[in-house]
C-alpha cells in the first residue's frame, strides 16, 4: 500500500525502512465495556458469512473472473475489458498451482492475503504473495500476460522494489502500446522487445524503473511524463487522471467508476467512492485506520459507534458524514492551492472514442455529454461551482474551512 501514490518512494529516498512506535502501557479507550461489546458484535458479523468465506477462499483475486466477465477489467492498456485467458491467472488456478497459505493482518478474521510457492510451470519454487485483483490485472491482463508463474514473478519483483504495481503496470502497458504502434522503437526502450505478454521484457523494464536506468528514469515519472516526451497521438491512451495512473477497473461499461476516478482528490482512485456520501464515509473510515474490506462486518453505523466508544464523544450519523465531508473538501482546496482546476477532472480520450471490441461489453463506450452531465450533477450535490469545480464559499464556511479561501 505504501507504494501507491509515491509514499514508499519518498521513504526510500530518505533511506527510511520503517517507523516503529514503542510504549509501556496499553492504549486507553474512553468506554472499555462498550469497546469490547463493539468488537464482539463485529466478530459475530464476520463469523461464517458468505462474504467472509469468499475473502478467505479467493481474496481480492476473486474479482478477476468477475470483472473480466462483465467487461470492466483493464486489458491491453485499457483497450479492452475482457481477458479471454483470465482463468489461467485467476484464483482457482492460483489455488491449484501456487497458493499454500491464507493469512491475515493482525487479528483480522478475513485472511484475504495469499502466499505460497510456484509448484509447476515457469519459475518453479518462487516464494510469493498474490495475485490480488489489482496486481493480477495490472501485471497480468493489462500486459496480456497469461502465464501464472510469470505473473507471480513480476509481482514479486514489483513488491521487492516497493513499487506501486498499479502505476507500474499502467506505465509498462502504455510503453507496450506505443511500441506496437511504432511511436517508439527498441532504441527508445534500451533494446528491450516490449511486446504484449513478454514476461522477460516486463521484468527487465521493472528493473530499469527501479534503478532509474535508461528508459526507466523517464518511465519512473509515470505516463503523463512519458506522453509529453513521446508526443504523437499517445495522449489519447495515456491512462491517468491528474497524473495518477488508473487502477485496474476499466470504465467503458462503468461511468460510476469514471466519476470516482475524476473526482478523487489524489487522482484516479477506485477506493474513494462514486457519490459524495460514499466519499465522505470513506474519508472517515480512512481516518480511523480501519480496512475497507473489514468494514463490511461492522454494520451501517459501526464506525461511528467505534469512535464513540474510543473517544467518549457521541457521534451521530450526520456528524460522522460531515467530518468526512470536511476532510474531502479540505483535500480539494489543497489541490486548488497547488494549481489543479476543473480541467484536471477528466478521463482519457480512449473511454469516449474507442469502443470495446470483445467480450460482453463489446461496442461499449462512454457518452461524452452524459458523463459531463453526471459530473455537473456531482459538483452541484457537493456544493461546488459546476464551472470551476471549486467549493462555494458558503459550503466551506459551513464546514469550518473558510480559512482555505485565503490560500488561493
Structural summary, described in words:
This protein is mainly alpha-helical and about 400 residues long. It has two domains: about 50-250, Orthogonal Bundle (Aldehyde Ferredoxin Oxidoreductase Protein, subunit A, domain 2); about 250-345 and about 365-408, Orthogonal Bundle (Aldehyde Ferredoxin Oxidoreductase Protein, subunit A, domain 3). It contains 18 helices and five strands. The protein has helices at about 5-15, 30-45, 50-60, 65-70, 90-95, 135-140, 150-160, 165-180, 200-210, 215-220, 225-230, 255-265, 275-290, 300-310, 315-335, 350-355, 370-380, 395-400; strands at about 100-105, 115, 125-130, 240, 245. A three-stranded antiparallel β-sheet has the order 1-2-3. A two-stranded antiparallel sheet has the order 4-5. The longest helix has 21 residues, at about 315-335. The protein is globular and about 60 Å long. The two termini are about 30 Å apart.
**In total, how many beta strands?**
5
Question: What spatial form do the alpha-carbon principal axes imply?
Answer: globular
- Largest sheet: spatial strand order: 1-2-3
Q: Largest sheet, if any?
A: 3 strands, antiparallel
CATH superfamily of the largest domain: Aldehyde Ferredoxin Oxidoreductase Protein, subunit A, domain 2
Average pLDDT metric = 94
Structural class category: mainly alpha
Query: Which architecture of the largest domain per CATH?
Result: Orthogonal Bundle
CATH fold assignment of the largest domain: Aldehyde Ferredoxin Oxidoreductase Protein, subunit A, domain 2
Could you name the ranges where pLDDT drops below 50 across 5 or more consecutive residues?
none
Oligomer: single chain
**What is the C-level CATH assignment of the largest domain?**
Mainly Alpha
Helix content: 40-55%
